[in-house]
Specification:
Elements: H1 3-22, H2 32-44, H3 48-75, H4 80-96, H5 106-118, H6 126-154
Helix pairs in contact: 1-6, 2-3, 2-5, 2-6, 3-4, 3-5, 3-6
């Protein structure tokens, strides 16, 4: 089987699994769309172990920095100018952290930040669930790539 089709099949199977886990089990508090964004970040980073590490490090760091930024916005009164200033600083940091090679995948940083904002940005246990969902999405990307490669070799 061509690698493209084996990857497509492995992804289709794991998408079904992910939808079952994240949508079919709402008590787990896993966001299906965040998982898909992280999955895409994995492949956009080149896949394999390197893609997993790059997207995991930059995306997770950005999720935490975004939560910290929103906490600071709250501490400073939450006004529009404060929000604009602190989120602008966050944007600078998300790019500047590429100075560190492990955090140098800037697209994953912005995707991770967007996922936290998109989740509602609640400064509670939501932070953990966004992180867990991000990790799950990258894990699904890793497994789908391995499974697809395996199916291509056996066909």
């Amino acid at each position: 089987m061509k690698i493209l089709y084996s990857l497509a099949l492995s992804i289709a199977l794991l998408v079904g699994f992910w939808v079952y886990v994240s949508v079919g089990n709402p008590s787990l508090n896993l966001s299906p769309w965040i998982g898909f964004v992280a999955w895409a970040a994995f492949f956009a980073a080149g896949g394999a172990t390197t893609g997993a590490i790059k997207s995991l490090a930059a995306g997770s760091t950005a999720i935490l920095l975004t939560a910290l930024t929103l906490y600071c916005v709250h501490l400073l009164g939450g006004g529009l100018m404060t929000t604009i200033l602190l989120i602008s600083i966050l944007g600078f940091v998300l790019v500047a952290m590429a100075e560190f090679s492990i955090l140098a995948y800037t697209p994953a940083a912005f995707l991770g930040a967007a996922c936290f904002f998109g989740s509602g940005g609640a400064l509670d246990v939501n932070i953990i669930f966004v992180l867990l969902t991000w990790v799950a999405g990258i894990g699904l990307g890793f497994v789908s790539e391995k499974l697809g490669n395996s199916m291509a070799k056996t066909a």
